[in-house]
Model the fold of this input.
Amino acid sequence: MSQKYRKKSGEAMNISRLAVDRLLKINWFINLGKPTFLYDATQLTDENAFIKEIASTDWEDTTLEARNEITGHLAKKHSNDYQEWNTLAREAQGIIDTAIIPLMINNEVVQHVILDNIKWDLINYLMEDAYKKHLKGSLFFESLINIYEHGHIPCGWNGKWPVGKLIIY
Done:
């Protein structure tokens, strides 16, 4: 990382190799529509309902609000580290595009709108992870990764975020 992005303490913000490795180990979509025992999630078993939910503005708004909560907090409370956000986001996007998406691209589930949603989740997970030392409370995008690790896709929110629960397929 170049000197211009180093904090005065000499410690730079980075995308965690452990977080990337966690994504590389996922067996993508192996349990779609199958029963799950994941707590605090509503499960869809119908593919049409899943596509409708993942493409909804309600789900988009929920994930956007979760991301905005992170960036708003960082801008107010950790502005020096937040200045590295765009650089880290480009790095995260590159990792997702080159190392993670090719692992799932042959899956018939991955259509354009679904792929865009998945990429959004994964990039924001890497960003949330990079800044987690500054964040309080539960980590929303990490909870989405838990769903992917169980072979499902998070696709909606039942309630008004942050109160409610995930909808998964």
